Amino acid sequence: MRYLFESVLVGIYSVIIYFFISYFIPSFFLSLLIVGFIKHYLGYYIGIHTFYCKYGDKCLKLHNDNTNYISNNNFMYYYCLLDVFLYFIFGYILTILFFWIHNLKIKYIIIFFLIGFIIHMFCEKYFIHDMFCMMNCNKV
User: Whole-prediction pTM value?
Assistant: First the structure.
């Protein structure tokens, strides 16, 4: 159940990044690529990845000890590329599904929230977070 809360936070995080870049990047599809990329880099540099290593649902299940963990940037490029790819695919699909929303700002906010939420759930279900925790989380 904790991963649902995590997914909501990732959705909100995606919307916040979209807000900042939407002033500089007017293209929706280009912003999909950039948000997917920035999300991982910013997450690493502001400590979200380390926080996930310590308290994330998957990492807590995999590291069932009380040891302190920190994230390194191993395989971050691969995660960024995967995230960019998933953002673009899900963004395209959701744009088609939400064709009936005419206010573009509201449509894009909904789409970015859902993309962040869906991708986090997708990564939970298909063991991508397991790989993240095993390869990127190191004992301190």
Answer: 0.90
